[in-house]
Structure formats: structure tokens, C-alpha cells
Amino acid sequence: MESNPVLLESKSSPINLLNEMQQLRLLGHLCDVTVSVEYQGVRAEFPAHKAVLAATSKFFKEVFLNEKPVDGPHSNVFLNEVQVADFASFLEFVYTARVEVEEDRVQRMLEIAEKLKCLDLSETCFQLKKQMLESVLLELQNFSESQNSEEEGAARPGAVPAAKAERDPPDCSAASPEGPAAKSKEKA
């Protein structure tokens, strides 16, 4: 008797794997690469795992696949013109699939994603920038509509319809220094 195949699939395994890799990185365990980052005199070193970097970044994949075996099991990679905070955020993203950054850093994160050829981060930044732009456009539209409503509302209460103005001319006699005499001269 033959049994039908069944699919065993874990929904939590990818997240658990990422979490465990992040913990190993944070503790410095099994790290086989050190990435040195320097920008305008600020320098930092980040221990990481070649497999994680290569799986998430085509840049690192090319570097690691083309390195000489004489380099030994531990590699060093030097990146200049990448800000330390941005690379730290990049690492957090590739190890956790999420990172929190200030809105004004989203463009820089997109640039580092493109430089390191990290498609997931690039797409994430692009989608966030798109949402931010749509939000700004919606705010501008709402502001414009409220301004138009206020201008229309301000024009209505003080305005006197033209037909009424012709029927009832304003009484200027009280404001005129000559009083009723000036009014009778106008009529004549």
C-alpha cells in the first residue's frame, strides 16, 4: 500500500532562523567576516556571517565567491563612503527583515541598498517612499480643498448680491459732511 505525500511546512521557521542568526551575530558567534566601514573619519567594524550577507546582497555574494582561498576562513571587507549608522541599520535589516530609521534616512537606506545590491531593502525603501509621497500629496490636496472652502465661505457672508445693491443703494447721508443737502444735489 502506497502512501500519499504530504507537505510539512513551518511558517515560523524562517523567522526563527533569522532571529537565531541575529543572536549569533550580536554575540559574535560563528562570524566569519568583519566588515569595516568608514565615512568622514568615523570608522566601525561589524562581525557578520558570509552566508547571510551573500544571501541578501549581490555585492557581498560577488565579493565572497571571488575571494582567494589563501585569505583563510575569516574575511575582512572594507567599505568606504558608507555611514556607520546606515550600515548598522542595513545589517539589522538583513538579519531581521525589519529596521526602524528616521524618515530623513530612508533615502540613504535606499542608496546603501542599491550600492550593496540588496533587493529586499531596496524594494522596502521604495515602497515606504511611495507611501510617504502619497501621504504628502493627500495632505496637500486636503489643505488645498480646505483653503478653497475657506475662500468660498469668506466671500459669501460679506458679499451683497448685485440685484439687492441696485435696489437699495447705501445711505451715505450720515457719513457725508454736507448731510441731506449733498444728497439732494446728487439727485438734481
How would you characterize the overall build of this protein?
This protein has about 190 residues and is mainly α. It has a domain at about 10-140: 2-Layer Sandwich (Potassium Channel Kv1.1, Chain A). It is built from eight helices and three strands; from the N terminus they run αββααβααααα. A three-stranded mixed beta sheet has the order 2-1-3. Helix 5 (about 105-115) runs antiparallel to helix 6. The protein is flat and about 80 Å long. About 10% of the residues are buried. The model is unreliable at about 160-165 and about 170-188 (pLDDT under 50).
Give structural attributes:
single chain; 188 residues; mainly alpha; Potassium Channel Kv1.1, Chain A; three-stranded mixed beta sheet; 3 strands; flat; disordered C terminus
Order of strands in the sheet with most strands: 2-1-3
And the CATH topology of one domain? Potassium Channel Kv1.1, Chain A
CATH architecture of one domain: 2-Layer Sandwich
Written as H for each helix and E for each strand, in order along the chain, the element string is HEEHHEHHHHH
Global mean pLDDT = 83
Q: Measure the end-to-end span.
A: 121 Å
Radius of gyration: 35 Å
Strand content: 5-15%
Instruction: Assign an overall shape.
Output: flat
Q: Helix tally?
A: 8
For the report, how would you describe the main beta sheet?
3 strands, mixed
**SS-based structural class?**
mainly alpha
